Amino acid sequence: MHKHPLAIHGGEKTRRTPMPPRRAFGEAERAMLMEAVDYYASRDEDPPYQGRYERLLCEAFSAYMGGGHTDAVATGTAAVFVALAALELPRGSEVIISPVTDSGPLNCILMQGLVPVVADSAPGSYNMGVEQFLARVTPRTSAVLAVHSAGEPLEIDRLVEAAHARGVKVLEDCSQCPGGSWKGLKVGTAGDIAAFSTMYRKTLTAGASGGLVWSPDEDTYRRALAHADRGKPAWRTDVDLRNPGHALFPALNFNTDELSCAIGLASLARLDDSVARRVAFVRRLSALLEDSEVCAPYPFHEGFSPFYFPIMVDAEKIACTKTEFALAVQAEGIGLGEHYGCLVAEWSFAKPLLSDDFTTVNAFAVRDSSFNLYLNERYGEEEAQDVLRAVRKVEQWYLK
Ligand SMILES: Cc1ncc(COP(=O)(O)O)c(C=O)c1O
């Protein structure tokens, strides 16, 4: 097989045009935003907290989830914070957290006076496994904060069953997997409460920043509502909500705004289409990667809603490190990160605050044997072919 000089060594790039930018803020989002602006202008009003577009977004999201109750908040971190607070866990109790997540969820546990206990992922996965969860449960465990990482749905039916059997509440963080499902069960609906980030990089986006809290239970939802807005009992019509004296407890203000909610409505209307496009790309590239001698696709399950795409590298077969391999593919014009970096057990600020110095060996193993292909709903056949061509070119160079 003829070897072509790699772009990283000064050779010609496989792909000369940039990978397609996402542009999640599309025509539909712009139109909804302008509709909200015009709506308030026509009424000669300023957009308020908890206005028409927040109500519409929450109703549409509850319908999308098949029922239940939704509150829209300012960020995904706020959504996790409010959802966790709504569970009213005993101070000082333990909350088991996934090994792979953003730092916001971990900080929510810490800032509510709870003790984070990191569980490992299932072998070969970025997601907490049920056995790995059970290995970390103690009599002090009050909840599990389970992240559907990378867009891969957790084995949530078994996790909820195992947790509830031990009196442990379940908070699902669905930020990276909106619209996903596990055995036909929509991601977020199996636990006690769910949080979603809708920041600009997420598949469901409220433009720049946002979050959603969803619960099947009205009381849990009401507690979330009050925790999201200074302790106010927003469902009560018999009290003056402008009077802070009617608050149920001290809480911060995590309100979102009408313009973000309008953008979120447009994004939600095309969520299934966005997920389907991402899934089609991942499936196509996974099939193409059968031609690779070194790379294999992350084993996503049915119902996935891909956020990023880990590509596994068999380092035994190449005369370079996984990172050198990934950087060479990147230099060919393919958008990627050398790996997904969000592993709780390695953050130095967090180490002294975790329950113990448990290491998440399975999560590290997946991280260390994969690179992280970026993707969005505008990726198609051309991009899949280019990724394969870049991978094949680099592996021809480095194959032992
Ligand atoms: C799993 C997960 N949870 C929570 C967050 C926090 O969301 P935000 O950035 O909207 O606060 C993110 C990403 O940012 C995330 O990926």
From TrEMBL:
Its EC number is 2.6.1.102. The keyword S-adenosyl-L-methionine does not apply. Residues 1-21 are annotated as: Disordered. The modification N6-(pyridoxal phosphate)lysine is found at residue 202. One of its GO terms (biological process) is polysaccharide biosynthetic process. Keywords: Aminotransferase, Pyridoxal phosphate, Transferase. It comes from the Bacteria. Belongs to the DegT/DnrJ/EryC1 family. This is GDP-perosamine synthase. It comes from Fundidesulfovibrio magnetotacticus. The lineage of its organism: Bacteria, Pseudomonadati, Thermodesulfobacteriota, Desulfovibrionia, Desulfovibrionales.
